[in-house]
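Researcher: For the record, we're logging two predictions in this thread. I'll number them. Prediction 1 follows.
Model: Prediction 1, sequence and structure:
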Amino acid sequence: MASPQFDIKIGRDGKVTVKVHGVSGSKCIELSDMVRDIVGREDSRKLTSEYYGGDGHVRINAEVHDRTGR
């Protein structure tokens, strides 16, 4: 089985979109929760059809802000 992979995009506006590939079900949720905990918040979550099958995807959207105040 291949290792899980993450597609992480950070927009100029600070919005983060994460897709988890290569796992499904509860493992997919566990990995996306890990990313959410690193980012610090989650604005939305979408379970895709792949989540329920063999090559899971979970998409989370969040915003990252510069904690130095810049």
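Researcher: Logged. Prediction 2.
Model: Prediction 2, sequence and structure:
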Amino acid sequence: MPLHIPGTRALRTFEVAGRHLNFTRAAAELGLTPAAVSHQIKEFEERLGVTLFQRTSRSMRLTQPGEILHAATTEALDGLARAAARARKSSATQLKVTAPASIAAKWLVPRIDEFMELWPDIDVRMDVSPNVRDFARDDIDVAIRWGKGDYPGMRADRLFDDTISPVCSPKLLEANRPLKEPRDLMNYRLIHVSWSGQGVTWPDWRMWMLAAGIKDFDEGPGLHFADSAPAIQAAIDGQGVVLGDSSLVADDLASGRLVQPFELSIKGPPQFAYYIVSPAETAGDPLVRAFREWVLEEAAKTPSGTRSMTG
């Protein structure tokens, strides 16, 4: 919904009327009567000393001066709306952050209390969603996004250089089944994360097995997820072995909830990563900047490779 700037009533009426070229439709958008719109336009023309609209019995169009002024008015109102939004956010006590479920559940949320201790007066609102939110329409301040980092009009900082390795619960290894070499994994239930998008497919067990020199890998029945967070939780619960992103399993490895039975890791698509993203025009706002710097510091402390069971 457009932001109404105080003192711009006449400009706003002219912008809407010039966009619709119909006073009735303009009145419906503005919540006025067609007569009120006509009166405001007439008054605006008298003050400017130019005719803005050419009217006939069947149609209406902007005059040449009207076209010049309408383009300038639209640009000015858009600029004022953006500036007003920035002004509000510069003194805001609320930060709205959006992130996909995996990075939110396995990395951001477990750390967010540290940021809130640094900024105790800030109300942090988390939007956990697989959808790419629109910063303006959804009133988002900061996003963590998975992609190539090519976000026009945005500041985007890369968070991790992930590797992918097998991880499992240490309890799983207590079973009377050896796990001495990669081929032994075929004696365990494998947990799969199936994801493809933006022209790439996330590395799977077949790719890891090929890297381990196993060309006759038989996938067999397993447990399949479309998202990493529940797949990692299934591994923590002892339900199988999963290929875990190093950033997403770092806390679970550090706590001993997961172990890495083999050191071999593979990399994801090199151009893809998690990025912290905000509009370029608001990237310097104090709260947005503070959150970005904190996230980047936390990302730098997150291990980029996983830990073996032998340490």
